[in-house]
Amino acid sequence: MLKKKDDTLKKVLFRLRRYWAALIMSLILATLNVAISLYIPVLVGQAIDHMVGPGSVDMAAVGQILLLVAVCIGAAALFQWLMSIMNDWVTYRVTKDIRDEAFRHIQALPLSYLDAHPHGDLVSRVVSDVDTFADGLLMGSNQLFTGVMTILGTLILMLSICWQIALVVVVLTPLSLLVANFIGKKTFSMFRLQTQTRGEQTAVINETIGNLKVVKAFGHENASMAQFDEVNDRLEKCSLRAIFFSSLVNPTTRFVYSLVYAGVALVGALMVIGGGVFTIGNLTSFLNYANQYTKPFNEISGVITELQNAMACIGRVFETIEEPIQKPDREDAKVPEVTGALRIKDLSFSYRKDRPLIRDLDLNVRPGQRVAIVGPTGCGKTTFINLLMRFYEPDGGQILLDGVDTQDIPRGALRHSVGMVLQDTWLRSGTIRQNIAMGRPDASDDEVINAAMQAHAHSFIKRLPNGYDTMIGETGVELSQGQKQLLCIARVMLCLPPMLFLDEATSSIDTRTEMRIQKAFNTMMEGRTSFIVAHRLSTIQEADIILVMRSGQIVEQGDHVTLLKKNGFYAQLYKSQFAH
């Protein structure tokens, strides 16, 4: 676990290297601040020596010294303020870089990783964990520079004033470091568990709120509350343990520093009483230095809790960043002139190696053909589409598009040549116009409106408060599932790519509108290779080829009439839907 923490620290330092100039400037400001702060006790000691003894008070000298002390305090405050600004800038630049890196990496991760991890946990890593890291880094950087300089400066000055008393400080101080280090090692694993549990809690909240209608419809409130309570109880227990053990650092180190201060005061007082060159002013300065020497240790031990928590949080973010991304496009990748000719040879794929799904699938599709894919739930229809789009990579076999293996085609070029309408709709926060024009941002208003009219979305769009400029999403107008699907269809009709993938594209639309959209689809599919996934067999009767899938394999293939005459599995599916 300690090695893992050290690795995390190295990764943080690696990302700080870009801002070395700002860090050096912060270090210079910290040095100036500490130097002035250490000079103030010298001035105070001199002022005291000017007031020791009856009738020997030199008020003119004391006044000059106090004026100089005031100037030093103002300068120290200015340098401290500038250093804080510099550290703030570095901290939030680094956290911005880490968030950019994490978000960019998440978009490059394979869908298999995203499907296997709760989305709420990923959101927690990029948002909450990075925020916690920023707080810890900010506290640490502000204390670190001034603390190190203060320790070195006061140690040098104490040795120059009286090395015997300085030895008392140097010998006792490491006790606090040993205590802080011991507790720090123990609390890191606890904070890591706390962070993981917090991410799990975020995932539960995100899942419940996102599906609250389903929860209420099935009376699942008590079960959801029980699930949340279980995670919340675990978070409470691990948080209390982490905070309890980390809170031991401050009082134990303060106890050691009190011993140091008492030892310095005792030895120094004996030396003053014994006579010699060690004066009351020297003792006052030395006590101030002893206090300043121990103060950074105390402050650093006070932020150990935050630092441990920050390292645990950012470690989770680095775990996500270091996940292997999807296999990159080949350097010699080709961009063919897509006509829609598709050849599939011995295709095989499985989500889990012990559960084969698609096996030895062969298919030959000519340009412009309409291919319907039917079969029972879980037979591999949507998986087949995902493989064609390279959302997943096949375990074996080849998918050839116009004679070129899709593995040799850049993903962007492949997906740009395909228009896709899914059963699950996705619209981003923005205007209706922006959502329709997502695939063609340069489309004119007339083209957007024409696409919406073809998708039979124009009529309901005009009824919205601001028409095509109506904001939708979390901060805008709420649309029904059917209306969202119509906008997704309009988006594809605007792009008109050479290939179409329709996966239950009209599942949320009423029958009357569906019949109209089917006519629009028929017009759009003219001359374009189209794959249509459908459960309602009435929508695919005009397809050139119907692929009947079962357990990941094509068990029947042909047009609607031919398959009915075979009286096989397709005929059973068809009769089950239209039997009276």
Can you put this structure into words, describing what you see?
The protein is an alpha/beta fold and 580 residues long. The protein folds into two domains: 2-198 and 234-321, ABC transporter transmembrane region fold (Up-down Bundle); 342-578, 3-Layer(aba) Sandwich (Rossmann fold), CATH 3.40.50.300. Helix content is 64%, strand content 10%. It contains 21 helices and twelve strands. It has helices at residues 2-16, 20-49, 59-108, 111-116, 119-161, 163-172, 174-210, 212-217, 221-247, 249-273, 280-302, 304-321, 381-388, 411-416, 432-436, 445-454, 458-462, 481-495, 511-525, 560-566, 569-578; strands at 342-349, 358-365, 370-374, 396-401, 404-405, 418-421, 430-431, 471-472, 499-503, 529-533, 545-550, 553-558. It has a six-stranded mixed beta sheet, with helices on both faces. A hairpin with a 2-residue loop joins strand 4 (396-401) and strand 5 (404-405). Helix 1 packs across helix 12 (304-321). The mean pLDDT is 79.
Number of helices: 21
CATH architecture annotation name of the largest domain: Up-down Bundle
The low-pLDDT segments are none
Strand order across the largest sheet:
6-9-10-3-11-12
Structural class: alpha/beta
CATH fold-level label of the largest domain: ABC transporter transmembrane region fold
Rg, Å, rounded: 36 Å
The whole-number mean of residue pLDDT values reads: 79
End-to-end Cα distance, whole Å, is 67 Å
CATH class of the largest domain: Mainly Alpha
Domains counted in the coordinates: how many? 2
The proportion of residues forming helix, as a percent range, comes to 55-70%
Oligomer: single chain
Share of β-strand residues: 5-15%
What summary fits the major beta sheet?
A: 6 strands, mixed
User: Which shape, going by the Cα principal axes?
Assistant: elongated
User: CATH superfamily name of the largest domain?
Assistant: ABC transporter type 1, transmembrane domain
Q: Using DSSP, what is the number of strands?
A: 12
